[in-house]
Amino acid sequence: MNIDFKKLADKYQTPFYLYDFDHITAQYTELKESFRARKSLIAYAVKANSNLSVIKHLSNLGAGADCVSIGEVKRALKAGVPTYKIIFSGVGKSDEEIKEALILDILLINVESSAELDRVEELAKSLNKVARISIRVNPNIDPKTHPYISTGLHENKFGVDIDTAKRMYIKCKNSEHLEPTGIHCHIGSQLTQLEPIRESINIVANLVRNLKAIKIELSFMDVGGGLGIVYKDETLINTYDYAQTILDSLFGLDLTIICEPGRFIVGNSGIFVTKVLYEKINGNKRFVIVDGAMNDLIRPALYDAYHRVEVLNNNKNLSDCNLVGPVCESGDFFAKNIDLPETQSGDLITIYSAGAYGFTMSSNYNTRARVAEIAIENGNDRLIRKRESFEDLIANEIEFL
Ligand code: LLP
């Protein structure tokens, strides 16, 4: 798409996030279509980008929501996702969160420990409700991704092992307040290899078969999220192969598939746009300093993540530099040792693949206001979250005497 960044920067000021809603539609549709041989629900992982307009756009397409806090559940509801398409996951849900989820009667609570299952039972009993339970299985499979975003190994805090899961399903079956409804497995994020997915789904499908043999019939298989995207030159899993692998492993089982993609849907739909403030040279190291910073997009600082960078309408006199922001930390960089052209103050810089875990991981560090978020759809732009003001930043602080 041809985007007039200059016009957008004049209209909204920098820095800002720009989301291409047509790309979101295309990504959602591709994945949904891949599963067309079965009943499926694409439950968008709200944590990746929780702007209400993004969730609403996906909800209009038919998506559900995978949430990890009651705040995310409320966002999903506010954006129009029906309760019967909302899932609540997470290793540490509080009593208040569990109660609210039960009262709202969402589709599934993904339970991640025996202790949590006991708690859900007690709370459901106190409310005279029956909780629909899905248990998150940890298949102990190495997803071959960044260690911070690997979740399917026993050394990670997520889910329970197969034997524990089986005992938990039996408990559900024998409880008046728990209904064994689904099974869940998510081994990690930014996955680019199919084999670990195949292995883990097979392990989970075997458990479903064992449960069936003891008359515990589940209705949903939640295969998690994690499909990778291209940041640089990654070879991706083809969505058709992905879906086929899952369908193959479920042969003979009558389950609705739930898939929880976040990054795949929004990652490459988002661009972070920032502007050059200054250039400087320390010794012989060149720095390009922009108005965006690590508090706006923390992935490079936190994971050493690569995000492609472009200086708009300028590719003369390339030379090595670090692209950095104004925050008082040496970790405040978007890219290190990259070739960029000689810039002028005011030049626009676009940082790609920023739609997932960009804005949602942003902070007010250094008392910096969170940036604006803009949607572009059919060539038309609109503001979907305004830039914060100084007053917004101090609004919750109690006046000191
Ligand atoms: N389902 C569960 C249970 C998850 O824990 C996650 C992500 C997803 C679905 C969605 O994963 P996705 O499809 O987006 O890969 N902040 C990190 C990513 C953390 C992912 C946490 N869980 C990053 O910036 O790379």
Automatic annotation (TrEMBL):
Protein name stated in the entry: Diaminopimelate decarboxylase
Residue stretches making up the Orn/DAP/Arg decarboxylase 2 C-terminal domain: 16-355
KW Lyase (keyword) present: yes
Pathway info: Amino-acid biosynthesis; L-lysine biosynthesis via DAP pathway; L-lysine from DL-2,6-diaminopimelate: step 1/1
Gene3D superfamilies documented for this protein: Alanine racemase, Lyase, Ornithine Decarboxylase, Chain A, domain 1
Molecular-function GO term, any one: diaminopimelate decarboxylase activity
The protein's assembly and partners: Homodimer.
Keyword flag Nucleotide-binding: no
Residues reported in the UniProt entry to bind substrate: 263, 299, 303, 329, 357
Catalytic reactions of this protein: meso-2,6-diaminopimelate + H(+) = L-lysine + CO2
EC number, UniProt record: 4.1.1.20
Active site: 328
Cofactor: pyridoxal 5'-phosphate
Family affiliation: Belongs to the Orn/Lys/Arg decarboxylase class-II family. LysA subfamily.
Broadest EC class assigned to this enzyme: lyase
Lineage: Bacteria, Pseudomonadati, Campylobacterota, Epsilonproteobacteria, Campylobacterales
Residues annotated to bind pyridoxal 5'-phosphate: 226, 260-263, 357
N6-(pyridoxal phosphate)lysine carried by residues: 47
One GO BP annotation of this record: lysine biosynthetic process via diaminopimelate
InterPro entries reported in the protein's UniProt record: Ala_racemase/Decarboxylase_C, DAP_deCOOHase_LysA, De-COase2_C, De-COase2_CS, De-COase2_N, De-COase2_pyr-phos_BS, Orn/DAP/Arg_de-COase, PLP-binding_barrel
Function: Specifically catalyzes the decarboxylation of meso-diaminopimelate (meso-DAP) to L-lysine.
Domain Orn/DAP/Arg decarboxylase 2 N-terminal: 22-267
Keywords: Amino-acid biosynthesis, Decarboxylase, Lyase, Lysine biosynthesis, Pyridoxal phosphate
